[in-house]
Amino acid sequence: MTDMTVDVQKALVRAKQNGFVLQDQHDVVNMGNLAKPRLLTALMGGATATVYNQTSVFEYDLTEYTPAAVNGKSYTERGKDIEKDVATTKYYKIGSKGIRLNASPADAWERRKPGTNDFLTTDDVLADQVMKAMDAFDIERELEYSSLLTTRTNRTAGGPFPQYDFHQDILGAAIPGATDIDFSSVGATPLRAIRLEVEKMDDKLAKYGLSASGYVCVAGSNFFEAAFEAEARRDFTREIRGSLDLATMGVPTFDGNGFRHQNFDSGEADVMFIKYSAKLIGAAMIDTDSAYLIPILSGQSMVKEVYAPAVTMSTVNQMAREMYSWFYEDEFEGVTGFYEQNKLSMLPRPDLITELAAV
């Protein structure tokens, strides 16, 4: 690295305990912006399932379709009555999440912008705080989706609002245990076993009158490696008919907002496997031996997002927005900002997720 010669006013050179101060300058190392995993948000979310409430309670009408069947009758009879579908209304409280930021005169006092000789300003500090706030809400959304995927519950982030078990509440039953997929026994056919789970999912979709454009298996590291090895072995026993030869090529990847996700299509399982090993706030999103089979719904979203209005003079009982922000400026305290999001992420059809476990 070449030395950098800088001309800094010596009167302003002062050692401080915190922050960049006006002293000897070195090349800046930028640790941001944060690469945010958004795989689950992309796979399970969508604008088609967004609801903007005027209150903090969401009324969800659940109707179970019961098919009708004709019956044999005489010419003088009129046939059997069709059974009427009855809707059940579920009530869910919409939680609130927020974050506070501040840029005070002390944050910029006698400090410089990293990598430059320019004075830091409170606007610079504020811009950095706003970026962090937006990152925080993006991360929280992915965490919400991870909670829905793995436990079928909403995430409260430590707030005072209820946590709902949507599988129990909507379907009246506990979440079934994971389906074991045998990758280790001699003669095991794990990809075929996963294909059977896909066929079961097709039956569930038919019950809802839905269709899928494909299936994705979001897998932890060990599950993904085992599935990839099984598909690679399969390539050795058949003619290669496409450009992707898993037996001889590296694992394909795609970029998702700064994260490289390994993935491959399995013809036998009729599923795209995606390795998801991201960690947020120190915790893995998916257990290394687990995987979750989900359909890519045609014209629908797996997750419904319901927003509630903020409780202020100008917004109370009004149509909700996805995000609220307020900023106040004080001559001595600087600029203080608040971001608020009042949202419930829920699973209307929690049985369209199948958990798998590598054994």
List keywords for this structure.
359 residues; alpha+beta; seven-stranded mixed sheet; five-stranded mixed sheet
Task: Explain what this protein looks like in three dimensions.
By secondary structure, this protein is of the alpha+beta class. Helix content is 23%, strand content 26%. It has 6 helices and 16 strands. The protein has helices at 39-44, 105-108, 122-151, 166-171, 190-208, 221-236; strands at residues 50-52, 57-63, 87-93, 96-103, 179-181, 212-219, 253-256, 259-266, 271-275, 279-280, 283-284, 290-297, 304-307, 324-330, 334-346, 354-358. A 7-stranded mixed beta sheet has the order 5-16-12-6-9-8-7. Strands 1, 4, 13, 14 and 15 form a 5-stranded mixed beta sheet that branches. Strands 2-3 form a two-stranded antiparallel sheet. Strand 8 and strand 9 (271-275) form a beta hairpin. Residues 1-34 and 237-258 have low confidence and may be disordered.
User: How many distinct beta strands?
Assistant: 16
Order of helices and strands: HEEEEHHHEHEHEEEEEEEEEE
Largest sheet: 7 strands, mixed
Radius of gyration: 27 Å
- Low-confidence parts, pLDDT < 50 over ≥5 residues? 1-34, 237-258
By DSSP (H or I, 4+ residues per run), the number of helices equals 6
Name the strands of the widest sheet in spatial order: 5-16-12-6-9-8-7
Distance between the termini: 51 Å
Q: So what's the overall shape?
A: flat
> Residue-averaged pLDDT, rounded?
83
Helix content: 10-25%
Q: Beta fraction of the residues?
A: 25-35%
By helix and strand content, what is the structural category?
A: alpha+beta
